[in-house]
Amino acid sequence: MEQQFLNRFKQTILDAEEKLLLLTETQAETPRTPGKWSPKEIIGHLIDSASNNHQRFVRAQFKNDLIFEGYQQDDWVKVQQYQREDWKQLVALWKNFNLHILHAVSQIPDSVLKKERANHNFDERAFKPVPKDQPVTLEYFIVDYLDHLKHHLRQIFR
Ligand code: NI
Question: Ligand 1 centre and the CA of 1: distance in Å?
Fold first, then answer.
């Protein structure tokens, strides 16, 4: 990945960690809008996103297509009861998981990152979808992962 992207990724995680840890346990459990996810649930969703996408980023290196399994995002948040988990622990897991993903993607050779792949389901899986008839790259999907992460951080900090 480009150094500029890696720096931006790292800075996003570290800046957010600092701000997230300023929230009290009660604040972290309170949704901005009733019925929506609380900060604990948003970070929980981002942990789910990290765990699913970590798998995708690794698996993509052993196959030619970029067709990925989905997951039922709301149900994942619900059954894991992130609301009942310790805030500092969630933030630490989120941060460290992402620092590992950052390391792992920094090790992917350009030949793999930039290889055009005709067979994909980014029309369904990507945060910024790509039509099926347009080729995609793994690099695109990794950049898209950070866009999704930042989108949810903005929901907490707005
Ligand atoms: Ni999301």
Answer: 23
> How far, in Å, from the CA of 76 to the mean position of ligand 1?
12
Q: Give domain limits for the chain.
A: 3-157
Q: Thinking of the domain 3-157, which architecture would CATH place it in?
A: Up-down Bundle (1.20)
Are the C-beta atoms of residues 17 and 155 closer than 8 Å to each other?
no
How large a percentage of the chain has pLDDT more than 70?
100
Find the 45 Cα to ligand 1 centroid distance in Å.
7
Give pLDDT tens digits for 10-66: 999 999 999 999 999 999 999 989 999 999 999 999 999 999 999 999 999 999 999
Tokens of 58: 């690794």
The phi, psi pair for 120, rounded to 5°, reads -155, 170
Q: What's this model's pTM, rounded to 2 decimal places?
A: 0.97
Ligand 1 center to 52 CA (angstroms): 12
7 CA from centroid of ligand 1 (Å): 22
Token couple for 28: 């972290």
| pLDDT tier at 158, thresholds 50, 70, 90 | confident
CB count within 10 Å of CB 24 equals 9
